[in-house]
Amino acid sequence: MKKLTVLLAVVLACGLAACDSSDPNSPAFKRKQAFKMVVRYAEPLGKVARGRDPYHADNFIEQTAELQRVADKPWEFFTPPQPGDTEKTRAKPEIWAQPQKFEQLRKDFIVAVDGVAAAAQTRDFDQVRPAVEKLEKTCMACHKAFRAE
């Protein structure tokens, strides 16, 4: 009985692994990975701006530099779905129907990232907080328009 249980567990684990249809070469997969990097650097900035984490100017400047480095990475992977694509995505169809609006929101995001970096250079928390809030608003505007929940 114990051998049967172990065998079933192994078969189930292998079956679940086979169900993972992520294609690491698909644009959607690459886009998700790029956004994970953006979040990795943006999220701590938001925590500082909201007072959840302490403000250390040097660390904040480093984080914003990293955010600037990765902020433009996801956008090249926004391509219309192709027949046979298996990667799940939360991008709404409107993203392909309204490319000018999407491009403007992308530009707003990049400008806001640069604004956070400029505010960080002042080392003044009172300038950092509104810059981060503006950045977060650009994220939310794009998500509201083009990201399914």
TrEMBL record:
UniProt cross-references to Pfam families, sorted A to Z: Cytochrom_C_2 (PF01322)
Keywords in alphabetical order: Electron transport, Heme, Iron, Metal-binding, Signal, Transport
GO biological process: electron transport chain
Gene Ontology MF, one: heme binding
GO CC term, one of those recorded: periplasmic space
Binding locations of heme c: 139, 142-143
Signal sequence coordinates: 1-18
SUPFAM superfamilies from the UniProt entry: Cytochromes
Mod. after translation: Binds 1 heme group per subunit.
Protein name: Cytochrome c556
Originating species: Plasticicumulans acidivorans
